[in-house]
Design a protein that fits this description.
By secondary structure, the protein is an alpha+beta fold. The protein has three domains: about 25-145; about 145-200, no CATH class; about 205-300. Helices cover about 70% and strands about 10% of the residues. It has ten helices and five strands; from the N terminus they run H-E-E-E-H-H-E-H-E-H-H-H-H-H-H. The protein has a five-stranded mixed beta sheet, with helices on both faces. The radius of gyration is 32 Å and the shape is elongated. It comes from Mariniplasma anaerobium.
Length: about 350
Amino acid sequence: MKKIKFVLSFIVLFAVVATIMGCEATLEAAETTYVTIDINPSVELIVSSNDKVIEANALNEDAEVLLSGLDLIGMDLDEAVDLIIATSIELGYISVDEDVETYVSVSAISCDEALQERIKASVKEHINNAFESRGMLGRSQEKTFDQAFIDEAASFGVTPEFLFLAYKVVELSDDYTLEQAVLLTDEEVFAIIELARAENQGLVLELRNQFFEDRDAKFEYYLPQIQSLEAQIVVVEEQIAALEETEDQTELLATLDDLNAQLVALQDEFHGEVAALREQFQAERSVYQNQFAQERQQRREQHQEQVNQFQQEMEDRCDRMQDRVDEFQGNANDNGSTSSNKS
């Protein structure tokens, strides 16, 4: 009897723990907003209810380049948005031409509609402020879905925003087809995405942290040397400016040329080292992502094979049952005919 009570207690405890974990995942999902910012780089920011960036993901190759040098996790949303705009300008994704206006598309999806609208409005405002503070033509706008995507969402009886999330579920989890994902509730979708991302992003996050650590080491090594050369150049330039017109500038000019040459060489070396780190990070991440995609595809194929096998077994059973029914009916008919003949 004691053993039975112990087992029952353990089952109850396990159920309580599982429920708590499930509730925590659902609560975290409910407080999360998925923001997309489309310039040409398409960036996804996962934002907490207190406007902190939890995660930043590249949605295309240009965004991979954009995010490779940025550490947005833990940043306030306004700072992250401004940094994305600033870096996009530096990399040439946003034109500095005074006659060209840049449009940045924004979308936000959350379980909490009020939170969703607040975050979206906040992101759009930060983008507009980023352009205005730089005296540039540019503004945010609501992201729109193409007609084919809208039609596909309508065919499932869901909104385009929910279909977008359903595709995320299929992308991140092996347990759901698109047809199954669109039947989930908002809370279930966000909880699945939250858990899947936590499981899948571990190594990528580790690679990213290593990249930033190595990059910071390069900064610590090169920047003092660069700043020292820049300071020496300023001193020599001041010395040249202080000379009388009749005084010989040859030696100082030669020194200045030498310092400038050293500075350019050091800057090139520094930029080359950082670029090499970035390429290494992108290559390692690409290898991991490809490996993960292959493993996921293999699991899906295995799952589909099991489903097909199960369906085949069920069809075989149905066929055997039908054969038995036909045989039984045939025997019954034969017996009926025999009885009639005897009569």
